[in-house]
Amino acid sequence: MWKFSVRRTLIMIPQLIVLSILIFVLAQLMPGDALSGQVGPDVDPKRLDEIREQMGWNDPWHEQYGRWMGGILQGDFGESFRFKMPVTDLIGQRIVNSFWLSVATLILTYLIAIPLGITSGRFNDTWRDQLITGYSYVGFATPLFIFALVMLWLFGFTLQWFPTSGSVTPGLEPGTFEYMMSKLYHLLLPAISMALITTYSTIQYLRNEIVDTKQKDFIITARAKGASESRVYNRHILRNSLLPIAAFFGFEITGLIGGSIFIENIFGYPGMGQLLVESITLRDYTVLTATTLLFGVASILGALLSDIILSIVDPRIRIK
Amino acid sequence: MADKLLEIKNLTTSFRIKDDYHAAVDNLSLTVNKNEVLAIVGESGCGKSALAFSIMGLHTRAKIDGDILYRDKNIAKMTPAELNKVRGKDIGMIFQDPLTSLNPLMQIDEQIGETILLHNKEMSKSARQERVLDLLNKVGIPRPEYVMNQFPHELSGGMRQRVMIAMAIANKPELLIADEPTTALDVTIQSQILDLINKLKNEMNSGIVLITHDLGVVAEMADRVAVMYAGQIVEVADVKTLFANPKHPYTRSLLNSVPSGNEEQDQLHVIQGIVPSLQNLPREGCRFSARIPWVDDSAHEKHPELREVAPGHLVRCTCYKHFSFPDASKEEQHVLS
Questions:
Q1: What homologous superfamily does CATH list for A90-319?
Q2: Residue B82 touches chain A, beta carbons under 8 Å
Q3: Each residue of B270-310: pLDDT tens digit?
Q4: pLDDT band for position A320 (cuts 50, 70, 90)
Q5: Ramachandran region of residue A43, left (φ > 0), alpha (ψ -120 to 50) or beta?
Q6: Fewer CB within 10 Å, N side or C side of chain A?
Q7: CB A104 within 8 A of CB A168
Q8: Is residue B167 less than 8 Å (CB to CB) from chain A?
Q9: Which CATH superfamily is domain B4-222 in?
Q10: What are the residue boundaries of the structural domains of chain A, listed by start?
């Protein structure tokens, strides 16, 4: 178990190196730089070149990459060109916001997916199953950003049940109960919107696993022992069907990252996704590379988490 | 001998295929006595497993008509809750493939323990563990206290089948149904497993329904044999009679198909054709007639029935009286035509 986890963690190192090089090179290839649009048209282009030279932007890419990486290893992501403050400070609060939004979305996703998936799988090809499958197809087909806008319009503006932007009501003392409730209140609508749309994959995955496991020989064995239907489902089918769901957990995180970029922008929620889009439009390279890198790291960590969870729940993997 | 354990009366198990019911087991009657091994033999697809599953009430999507009387309780008419009290307690079942019949995520002690727990709710956990250990010892598993905590994938096929047997006999059932218990195993392991089943049967005095297509297994294990073809029993006899004096053309063809090891027999006898699929079963007449085309139609009965030809020896249809194997050259002609 430990051996497996350590080995699995070590594999991440080359993954991270390749990821960081890719992000850096792609960011470099973007047209324009932080100076474009930031300086007046009357500034002498020679002066701009001097600045570029001074900043080291004309050095070969691997030297720039080396400087960047060296900084990151010391916990320094550089300074934002736009906000004129260290990227670490800029990211600090937002990463916490994004984290809680993701946690809330994940919890809601599983709260929706597990009962629906179980019902759908257990009573497959009945009206219940068709209803649930219909819902998941609608979820699959609906673009998240349109659905989120509709939710915002309906529950935020028209019914006014939820706040329409921000992550907390201004003026509250951090750490108090009101502050926490306000945070929760603010992330609820974005999280529900995302969960309702992204849950389809987990529902269908679980449904198919259950339909599959139902026909396995060991299920017949369990019935032959005299186990009741509910015991067969709870002890034998569900346990075996949840394995792939655990494996799916990491990819769920990757999906969340993609979703949060839309959701945070639409709901004006100050998180990493919103920061990423801002940094792209403003050519704020240091912020852009830092946020992309962190998203990438989150995906890799998600996959790692999946593997470790799977190795805990599935004895067949533990052995290898 | 005549202590009836299981009596099947006019059992018909049908499956629904495209809005129509087709009988995999067709109007079948059988009895199993205490302390007796009844072998059910037949080709793949003849309905032997469908019969075994019917006895255990394991079919989820089949229509079952007729009666399955276990000690005067009718299994065929039981509610699921009643059925669950019988399965695993009074009737145990050993399955064909031990590789897929064990839950991959449960430790061995948990899987065997479950059978005990389900029928002895008040038994303490330690007593249950002790019983599991006892069972593992009984089925000849080396280092049982170690194997207990292992998962199925860590065991060999033979070991897994022993675990399956331990599960089936956990509550000392009076009737054991073994559905091709050795088919998925190596030949060397096969005889060990059969010996084990035999030993346990003698210890527990239980009846066994042994389902197999292996006549070697039948000869070694069975007291009585029922030969099944296309959902019906075509011949029943005690094992000595069946091997010495087979009557029905199908039984004779089956026995003839066993390679003898005789050097002069350069070609294996093969029964022509295949078992008809459920949808293509002939609704009337002798179901085997299509596979012995050289026998004249008039030899078969219109509505073939099982008749006693000698005490305890039953044969279906009259065609056995007119049946003989064609000589080799003729048989070739039939294959060509």
A1: MetI-like (1.10.3720.10)
A2: no
A3: 777 777 777 777 777 788 877 877 777 777 877 788 888 88
A4: very low
A5: beta
A6: C
A7: no
A8: yes
A9: P-loop containing nucleotide triphosphate hydrolases (3.40.50.300)
A10: 2-73, 90-319
CA atoms within 13 A on the CB side of A32: 13
For residue A260, what are the CA distances in angstroms to A39, A111, A191, A301, B143? 32, 19, 9, 17, 54
B172 touches chain A (CB under 8 A): no
Contact (CB<8Å) A221/B95 = yes
A221 CB within 8 Å of a chain B CB: yes
Q: Is the pLDDT of residue B336 over 50?
A: no
Whole-angstrom distance, CA of residue B250 vs CA of residue B231: 13
Rounded to a whole number of angstroms, the distance between the first and last alpha carbons of chain A is: 9
Residue A316 to residue A202: CA distance in whole angstroms: 23
Q: Collect all residues of chain A within an 8 Å Cβ-Cβ radius of residue B153.
A: 315-316, 319
pTM of the model: 0.78
Query: Residues of B with CB below 8 A from A319's CB?
Result: 153-154
CA nearest to A213, candidates A234, A188, A190, A191: A234
CB pairs under 8 A between A and B: 75
Q: Other CB atoms closer than 10 Å to residue A160's CB: what's the count?
A: 9
Please report, for chain B, the start and end positions of each structural domain, with discontinuous segments joined by +: 4-222, 232-336
- The answer to whether A227 contacts B114, with C-beta atoms less than 8 Å apart, is yes
Residues of A in contact with B80 (CB under 8 A): 228-229
A196-234 pLDDT tens trace: 988 888 899 899 999 999 888 999 999 999 898 889 988
Q: What is the pLDDT of residues B84-136, one digit of tens each?
A: 999 989 999 999 888 899 999 899 999 999 999 999 988 899 999 999 999 99
**Would you call B102 and A221 a contact, using CB atoms and an 8 Å cutoff?**
yes
B89 touching A, CB under 8 A?
yes
User: ipTM of the assembly?
Assistant: 0.84
Mean pLDDT (whole number) for B251-258: 84
Cβ(B190)–Cβ(B180) below 8 Å: no
